[in-house]
Amino acid sequence: MDLYINPAQETWKAILQRPVFDASALQEKVAAVLNEVKLNGDQALKKYTALFDGVELNELAVTPDELVNAVQSLPAALKQAIAVAAANIKAFHENQLAGSEVIETMPGIRCWRKSVGIEKVGLYIPGGSAPLFSTILMLGIPANIAGCKEIVLCSPPSKEGTLNPAILYAAQLVGVTRIYKLGGVQAIAAMAYGTETVPQVYKIFGPGNQYVTCAKQLVQQQGLAIDMPAGPSEVCVLADNTANPAFIAADLLSQAEHGADSQVLLVTDKKELVTEVEQELTRQLEQLPRRDIAAKALENSKAIVMPSIEEAIALVNEYAAEHLIIACENEEAIAERISNAGSVFLGNYAPESVGDYASGTNHTLPTNGFARSYSGVSVDSFVKKITYQKLSPEGLQRIAGTVTTMAEAEGLQAHANAVTIRL
Ligand SMILES: NC(=O)c1ccc[n+]([C@@H]2O[C@H](COP(=O)([O-])OP(=O)(O)OC[C@H]3O[C@@H](n4cnc5c(N)ncnc54)[C@H](O)[C@@H]3O)[C@@H](O)[C@H]2O)c1
Ligand SMILES: N[C@H](CO)Cc1c[nH]c[nH+]1
Ligand SMILES: [Zn+2]
Fold first, then answer.
1. Distance from C-alpha of 235 to C-alpha of 322, rounded to nearest angstrom
2. Residue 109 parent element (H or E)
3. 317 and 268, same structural domain?
């Protein structure tokens, strides 16, 4: 990790940059794949699956036999863990479905708003380097609560042309309606445009690598809704002298192991803590099966010593991390002052990985500074909010003058007439 001590404010922006890659070359490559799928449908999907995933598929859809086998083959302990996680995620998200209260703005004029599930949604489940079946719970459960009717899922196949049984099990558990062996740009293209096999959806959800994220952004420019740019995972730990260096190192490594393009940050007012955390990182890294990936991510990562916790909070808000852990005394008071973060973990006993799997909050979160303006996925992401109104004859009489005066001032006589004709 690069170390910065008391950096001047003018340097923060440069220090807090995410790992950069050549976005122009990426966009060109992604746009070409999107276009080919749009033109050639399934044939292009199979071509790119062979090219990028190294497998020739005859069938893109998962078969009923594969679904049955997945349920049978999954260990009972994993099914039990998935059940506990799913129950917590359901409990947290169910509470988000807002009721439709009727507001009488004037006597005889009643207005209300109702959340209606987006009919067809597409879920992208990453699977390039790890089969993230937990993401199915994070997307499928709110989609279900929202009342989405068609829930399409795409995830990259293995070299043997299979999907991990845990992916197939979780998909069935949350009520996914169609499952396809498709990854990367080709998966996003299939759901965005539709092909002979894959139905077109109205909104695409889910995290992914740089190809997936770029494809989602390009189809958004073409008019399709997406959840948000949820790219390489990040965590920022804000720590003072009450923090435990071994816990911090474990938290940093938990996100570093996602991918070489992940970034983790330690921000503290205690210089010695950095040395202690670095020693722990070395010790814990050696024991990780994904140590090569995590070690690469640590090369993109930073430890920043600030003169005070006050300034550390300002820097953390500037960074807008996907995940923020506050391992400080007065963590609740500090949390009140956080204005930019995807999800916040308070105290020494809230490791970020509990949020990744099972505490109940959603792990599909904005990365790359997008937490300044985007929220993570919730039930809201899966609904449209339709407004309604009903007026009585007396209600219309009451508001007529207001509307006709305004319509005539805008020079829109037909608007005014639509009111006066009824009086
Ligand atoms: N922000 C969040 O909420 C969140 C949540 C979970 C995971 N993530 C992130 O999701 C990412 C998952 O990435 P992943 O790679 O493991 O899986 P992935 O499923 O996103 O990507 C795999 C696909 O990428 C495509 N691909 C690979 N190399 C390519 C190339 N050279 N050209 C074109 N396409 C190519 C392939 O089609 C492959 O199927 C990680 O970066 C992780 O940090 C983020
Ligand atoms: N940390 C990821 C979001 O950035 C989510 C995840 C899934 N599995 C493990 N972690
Ligand atoms: Zn994670």
1. 6
2. strand 109-117
3. yes
Q: How far is the CA of 313 from the centre of ligand 1 (A)?
A: 31
Contact 149, 388 (CB under 8 A): no
Ligand 1: which of 34, 129, 137, 209 to mutate, judged by most atoms within 8 Å of the beta carbon? 209
340 and 412 share one domain: no
pLDDT in tens, the chain (423 residues): 999 999 999 999 999 999 877 777 899 999 999 999 999 999 999 999 999 999 999 999 999 999 999 999 999 999 999 999 999 999 999 999 877 899 999 999 999 999 999 999 999 999 878 889 999 999 999 999 999 999 999 999 999 999 999 999 999 999 999 999 999 999 999 999 999 999 999 999 998 888 999 999 999 999 999 998 878 899 999 999 999 999 999 999 999 999 999 999 999 999 999 999 999 999 999 999 999 999 999 999 999 999 999 999 999 999 999 999 999 999 999 999 999 999 999 999 999 999 999 999 999 999 999 999 999 999 999 999 999 999 999 999 999 999 999 999 999 999 999 999 999
Please state the domain count of the chain: 3
CB atoms within 10 A of CB 274: 21
User: What's 236's domain CATH number?
Assistant: 3.40.50.1980
Ligand number nearest to the C-alpha of 262: 1
> Of all protein residues, whose CA lies closest to atom 31 belonging to ligand 1?
52
Instruction: Please state, in angstroms and as integers, the Cα–Cα distance from residue 79 to each residue in 23, 73, 355, following that order.
Output: 40, 10, 18
- Domain membership of residue 151 (yes or no) is yes
**323 an active-site residue?**
yes
Same domain? For 271 and 184 the reply is no
User: Complex ipTM above 0.85?
Assistant: yes
Contacts of 54 (CB under 8 A, 6+ apart): 159
d(CA 393, CA 121): 40
Let me know whether 238 and 192 are in one domain: no
Nearest atom (ligand 1) to Cα of 208: 20
Residue 214 token pair = 């770029």
Q: Are residues 131 and 257 in the same domain?
A: no
Kindly state whether residues 222 and 244 are assigned to the same domain: no
Q: The domain containing residue 368 runs over which residues? A: 231-372
Q: Whose CA is nearest to atom 28 of ligand 1?
A: 52
Contact 148, 382 (CB under 8 A): yes
pTM exceeds 0.90: yes
Residue 125 CA: nearest ligand 1 atom is 19
Decide if 5 is inside a domain.
no
